[in-house]
Amino acid sequence: MLKIKKKKTEKKKEVYALGQHISMSADKARRVIDQIRGRSYEETLMILELMPYRACYPIFKLVSSAAANASYNMASNEANLVISKAEVNKGTTIKKFKPRARGRSYPIKKSTCHITIVMKDISLDDKYVEIDSLKKPRWKNKHTAVYRDMYSSGGIWDKK
Predict the structure, then answer these.
(1) Its Gene Ontology molecular function terms (predicted)?
(2) What is the pLDDT of residues 13-53, one digit of tens each?
């Protein structure tokens, strides 16, 4: 007879929400996802409400769904949630033909994408490292611009 040892189950620290076959280009959704990766839940909601892109609405729904999963499954507070992983994958492409003049046809390709949002509860993590360090800086301020007063610069126009 086989004996099966039960492992001690740890409390889950991450939850996810998955949106499949969203009718949108993966590049357009990735533009929004790059802005919210590594941010807190409340900050993400503010960013998504104010951004002018069409991709914000399905991503907003996925983020709120992941937060609802976290509050239901892990009984965690929304203030402790951080987006630890957000990715966009290319989905299937719907191909149709539109009839045109003189018996020709024009192909229409509608692309879809799959979006995955993984949220982490930072209150359950003992070794919490600052998640903002996951975000790569988009620019570094190496050079500061020096503005000069162009009217009193001592140039050609100051001479009479």
Answers:
(1) rRNA binding; structural constituent of ribosome
(2) 889 899 999 999 999 999 999 999 999 999 999 999 999 99
Strands in 81-99's sheet, in edge-to-edge order, are 14-22, 105-121, 81-99
Tokens 């919210």 belong to residue: 36
Instruction: Determine contact, residues 44/78, Cβ cutoff 8 Å.
Output: no
Q: Under CATH, what is the fold of the domain 14-135?
A: Ribosomal Protein L22; Chain A (3.90.470)
Using CA atoms, how far residue 5 sits from 10, 12, 157, in Å, is 15, 20, 89
Residue that is written with structure tokens 């996802």 in the block: 33
Beta bridge partners of 93: 111
Per-domain boundaries in the chain:
14-135
Query: Within 10 Å of residue 24's Cβ, how many Cβ atoms?
Result: 21
